[in-house]
Specification:
Distance between the termini: 20 Å
Function: Catalyzes the dehydration of D-mannonate.
Low-confidence stretches: none
Strand content: 15-25%
Bound molecules: manganese (II) ion
Mean pLDDT: 94
Structural class: alpha/beta
Shape: globular
Pathway: Carbohydrate metabolism; pentose and glucuronate interconversion
CATH architecture: Alpha-Beta Barrel
Cofactor: Fe(2+); Mn(2+)
CATH topology: TIM Barrel
Keywords: Iron, Lyase, Manganese
Pfam families: UxuA (PF03786)
Length: 351
């Protein structure tokens, strides 16, 4: 398993120099953030980013994310042009040595929370989702902005895009995803890249917009669309695990054994039975997920892909991008390293 860390580029206050000092850190996960969605990532830009990362003593092998244009998710006639651009970007990334490309297929909104400053008992702050708070939001009438939302949508644009999605039910979203995968995965495969879809976060419909990468049944269906290791998962324990409906440990074991997990996001969450959750430290006893059992499932199945600590709380007075401070994610990485080392040594001593 290769340990990685998400970095938001030259403007990230969590610098490459700081990241490199986290024990066991090898790989940077990042993206080119200033290219508009749907346009090609030029080879020279990718190479410059790679050089910057390598100069800091780290490797650039995972992209998160290469975003999918809304027209592809909507199945509009313009999608072919955007798919063509997507493939060009994949070829350029492969040429620069990228191994895994994370993306998602969530309509309009990325991850959705109702607060990024939920106070825990220890006075740290974390991301949380409370169903009641979400139900009180009217996306049409209110001037709302929630964390994770693409703020580039103006109110009128948002109204328009909701109008477009009013024709998209689950089956049409599946069909648009299928169209995309059948075009893109063979190209990824040829160039040695694993496409790794990130599950929907949270894994249920938001504001009437369908979400389909949500549960074992749907992930089984997804993997069958193109049966190739280049059509893989970013298994995000926190996204799929924010509801008791998903058995995370058994899903990890199954998909890792099938060699369909290219990238793992490790994060813990505390959920209740009413659709609410908040993110916790990585420690098993702080949340609803058993980190040792998850890592053991990966270890038993010979997982050799990439993992990263996912969101962290804000601790020790740190401020910055919600979920992406240095301290709690670094603690998460160390905790994961400790569990993994134990599993490795247990394996050696049992032989
Ligand atoms: Mn994730």
């Amino acid at each position: 398993m290769k340990m990685s860390f998400r970095w938001y580029g030259a403007n990230d206050q969590v610098t490459l120099e700081k990241i490199r000092q986290i024990p066991g850190m090898q790989v940077i996960v990042t993206a080119i953030y200033d290219v508009p969605v749907g346009q090609v990532w030029e080879y020279e830009r990718i190479l410059a980013l790679k050089k910057q990362i390598e100069d800091a003593g780290l490797r650039f092998e995972v992209v998160e994310s290469l975003p999918v244009h809304e027209d592809i998710k909507l199945g509009l006639p313009t999608r072919d042009k955007y798919i063509e651009n997507y493939i060009k970007s994949l070829h350029n990334l492969a040429k620069a040595g990228i191994k895994v490309v994370c993306y998602n297929f969530m309509p309009v909104f990325d991850w959705t929370r109702t607060t990024v400053e939920y106070p825990l008992k220890d006075h740290s702050k974390t991301l949380a989702y409370f169903k009641k708070d979400l139900e009180n939001i009217n996306v049409y009438d209110d001037d709302v902005s929630l964390p994770g939302w693409d703020t580039s949508y103006k109110k009128e644009d948002l109204r328009h895009i909701f109008e477009q999605y009013s024709h998209i039910d689950e089956e049409s979203l599946w069909s648009n995803l299928t169209y995309f995968l059948r075009a893109v995965v063979p190209e990824a495969e040829k160039s040695g890249i694993k496409m790794a879809i990130h599950p929907d976060d949270p894994p249920w419909n938001i504001f009437g917009l369908c979400r389909i990468i949500t549960c074992e049944k749907n992930i089984d269906r997804f993997l069958k669309i193109v049966d190739s290791e280049s059509n893989s998962l970013t298994f995000c324990t926190g996204s799929l695990g924010c509801t008791p409906d998903n058995d995370i440990v058994s899903m990890v074991r199954k998909y890792s054994a099938q060699k369909r997990i290219a990238f793992v996001h490790l994060r813990n969450v505390k959920f209740d039975n009413d659709g609410n959750f908040y993110e916790t430290s990585h420690l098993s006893s702080d949340g609803s997920l058993d980190m040792v059992a998850i890592l053991k499932a990966l270890h038993d199945t010979g997982f050799d892909g990439y993992c990263r600590p996912d969101h962290g709380r804000m601790i020790w007075g740190e401020t910055g991008r919600p979920g992406y401070g240095l301290y709690d994610r670094a603690l998460g990485a160390c905790y994961i390293n400790g569990i993994w080392e134990t599993l490795e040594k247990e394996k050696c001593s049992s032989h």
